[in-house]
Amino acid sequence: xxDVEAILENARYLRxxxxxxxxxxxxxxxxxxxxxxxxxxxxxxxxxxxxxELEDGTFVPVDDGTLSSAGTDVERFxxxxxxxxxxRLADRYGPxxxxxxxxxxxxxxxxxxxxxxxxxEAVEYDALTADAYALYHLPDYYAAVQYVLxxxxxxxxxxxxxxxxxxxxxxxxxxLGLDDFVxxxxxxxxxxxxxxAAADVLEWLLAETRPGFDATxxxxxxxxxxxxxxxxxxxxxxxxxxxxxxxAVADRYLDALADAGTLCVLSPAEERTATRLREVERxxxxxxxxxxxxAPTVRLWPDHEPEDRGWTFRREPALAVPAFQRxxxxxxxxxxxxxxxxxxxxxxxxxxxxxxxxxxxxxPAEVARMAEIEAHVTDRIDLVALKLSPDLAAExxxxxKVSDGSEAVDHYAVLTRESTLNExxxxxxxxxxxxxxxxxxxxxxxxxAYNLVVDGETVVDRLA
Length: 464
Prior knowledge:
With 464 residues, the protein is of the alpha/beta class. The chain folds into three domains: 4-61; 79-351, Rossmann fold (3-Layer(aba) Sandwich), CATH 3.40.50.150; 370-462, CATH 2.40.50.140. Helix content is 32%, strand content 22%. It is built from 13 helices and 16 strands. It has helices at residues 4-14, 22-28, 35-44, 46-49, 79-93, 100-118, 127-154, 173-181, 198-206, 246-254, 271-287, 323-330, 424-427, and strands at 51-53, 59-61, 161-167, 187-193, 213-218, 231-237, 257-268, 292-295, 314-316, 343-351, 380-387, 399-403, 411-415, 433-444, 449-454, 459-462. Strands 3, 4, 5, 6, 7, 8, 9 and 10 form an eight-stranded mixed β-sheet that branches. Strands 11-12-13-15-14 form a five-stranded mixed barrel. The protein has a two-stranded antiparallel ribbon with strand order 1-2. Strand 6 (231-237), helix 10 and strand 7 form a beta-alpha-beta unit. The longest helix has 28 residues, at 127-154. The protein is globular.
């Protein structure tokens, strides 16, 4: 039997002296286990040892510092993960899992999941439900988490030795996205909390993650789990707002954050769930005076809180259709019912160190507050606001939700005439801070919202 502890003891000592060479370490261990065994042991304990593997087969300590933005542009769900997932489907339902009775049952369960979602009904996750959920949601959840992580990495907020707690981890979309996002020269200590049969899919897929991604799955509820921490990211992926007491649960898990850690909550973009996320966000801020919204709904004005509906979401390019979705859909006629590759999501990033993605203090002598917008109807004014939606107009003039964190009702920037002076409005990314000069304020009775009319006389500049 391999003396694992002896291998690790030698590795702990030598890592401070020189690169770890399995050819050398095997000579120091009783019984002289084969160098390949030593190498595999170090790989399996890379996070514990804080080392990464080089191309020559040796191991060196992971550099201090933080991850940097890679300019995330997710095009597809990776073939390796897709093949691993299809292996599970073939193992459970046979090689023609997408046809016949098994295909019918999986499609019927996806239909039921959709019905329950729109009816706001709870779903019990047995094995069939977990497989159906993964078929429909693995790709978009895999992509969404990477865009949010990239925002944090771009601001230097993710260490190279990253500890992540994924609460309600589900079938593993965010876990796989995390694994692909973090580069090979870094390490991830990943802990998942998932009580349902979805954990079976999660554990199956985690077998495909790389060395240096150390995963532990806790099969218990969010309420029962006792997080040890500290974690650099506490993630709730499309689950927090479905809990009976989301604010209390999030409050408890905030205590597991590292001092410079981030609470990350993802939600579907649909109005009901996205606005529910903002309700939880506002209640959590009222409960925790040490908490600050990092992104995207930054409060620009001190001592002001938004009271609008809070329906804001981000849209990124759709993914290529994975083979498993195409097979399931084609077996039922191929009309796209069982294809889900749109990447649209709402999210919250919150921290306890007062940092915000947009550090900007408006001057009330120069720009108006949305909290006081009623006094400016039919006037042209200057203001600053965050862009918090893609183009929402099905046709006609482009329409974008904007916010400064003080508004009582929704505000939308309506682009009636694009020019070089205002092209920042349609081109700026989600979450960007914009300055509007000479924008016309109108009340929209139909939508019960304020329109900020951006025309040929309006200047829009991107500030951040």
